[in-house]
Amino acid sequence: MTDCARTWMVEAARVGRLSTAQTQTLREHLRSGCKTCVTEQRYVDWLGRTLREQSPNHDEVAVRRLRRSVLARAQANVVGPAFALRPTVAVLAIAVCALGLGAWDLLGRTPEIVVTPLTAAAVARRTSERGRDVVALDDGAYHLVVRRWPLDREVMVRLPDGEIEDLGTVFTVRVANRKTERVDVTRGAVALRLSGVPEIVLAAGETWEAKPAPVPELPSPIPPIVVERPASVGSSARPVEPSGDHPRSVAKHKRRGVPAPTATERAPASPASSSLEDAAYLHVLDLLREQRSVEARRAAEAYLTHFPSGFRRPEMEQLLEGDRKLR
Amino acid sequence: MSLVRPLEARREVASDAAIVARIAGGDTDALGILYDRYASALVRYAARIERSDAEDVVQTVFIRVLRLAASFRSDAASARPWLYAITARVLQERSRALRRFGRTLGQFANMSRAMAATSPSETRRDLERGVKALSRAKSVVLILNEVEGFSCDEIASMLEIPVGTVWTRLHHARRELRHYYEGGHD
Hints:
The complex is a heterodimer.
Chain A: H1 7-14, H2 20-31, H3 35-53, H4 60-79, H5 87-107, E1 112-117, E2 124-129, E3 132-137, E4 140-147, E5 155-159, E6 162-166, E7 170-176, E8 179-187, E9 189-194, E10 197-203, E11 207-209, H6 247-255, H7 263-266, H8 271-289, H9 293-306, H10 313-321
Helix pairs in contact in A: 1-3, 8-9, 9-10
Chain B: H1 16-24, H2 28-49, H3 54-68, H4 80-101, H5 103-117, H6 127-133, H7 136-146, H8 152-159, H9 163-184
Helix pairs in contact in B: 1-2, 2-3, 2-4, 3-4, 4-7, 4-8, 7-9, 8-9
């Protein structure tokens, strides 16, 4: 195939085997237009470039899920066997464990999962994959309660852009436009894994929220145009009414003796936020009925954080002050 | 209001050598840090050579890191070559295990190589298949050099083979893949 005695230099240059003088010789030779060597050079360049461009698809979320498995195995390797059992004792221990697991199997190892859609279009689908229960969520808001024992099957909540591994929890998820917007954990803990975001473990009372898009800078308000009515001609021109929290709007409300509504108050409550608020309040009630006062206080704090203008704010505040018991 | 507890925000950025030293002491948190730094890249590397078991390979690598951490050179600037070396060894061990497992697999691989060698009209899209048809020894060296950017001297050190062996394997790998280029660039 090679018609030129210098073709070997093309590859040798690529792996750094040529001296400076030899590299210079090769450059001149290529410039002279040796077809064999030029083709060889193009080939090795093409091969390297094509190999680099072929990036195998790998699931970023799966890599992060693998992390947990790696660390669990590593931990087991580090701890090691606590002590060496005598063979008879070891056999008996294994038999007892097998009987126990068999009994557990009879009782059932399916975790209890309750998914409550909080918006009209919210759709959740439950399946079983590779020995774990999977709940797939589409756009919408959901309230989830998962009750599982340590040996129960894993529960995974699949999001359009990632997943949440349940570690025995009550939590709320909001998804919009195929993106996870918010996760509130009211009991237990979850591991949240989303594309482009490091894994986050959220404990009870904690919230993760997607970064809002940067608000575009609005130009400074244009002062209203006042058209002087000519003495002889009628005019329908009126001053432009300022809107929003413009100082003139506030001044207008003050003149009327009415406090200017804030942006939060003026915005009508969406059905989704009302449902979330109700779910959060009911959750506090559940905890109190179960006499889990510490978790109830945390859930009340979470309510006040998420719903500062919530309808049941006074009740939550009194709960935290310890003055009143909700029935 | 968010109460996010990012895993890495509260830790100092430690060097790879410091991290590996902690791993040698049994610190599995440090293993998690090393995993976060390199796992994705190692999965991509393993997937180029053994797509279906790339995650399993990487899991084996990090478990082996626990055992090998004590032998890591503390003056090394980065753990990257070391981790890639472990990955390459795991890939080669798996290849040898597959050959011991069944000759039919080897025969299939031979058939694939023969098919690749006698199909000069295949385009660059089949280059990936061609790489997988290479022997494990050649594909590991080729990917480490052309894709991951390691020099031949580094590869020789990582795989504990002479640098001349690295050159030879690269040369043969390029020869075997040549017809994919000629098929699309006549």
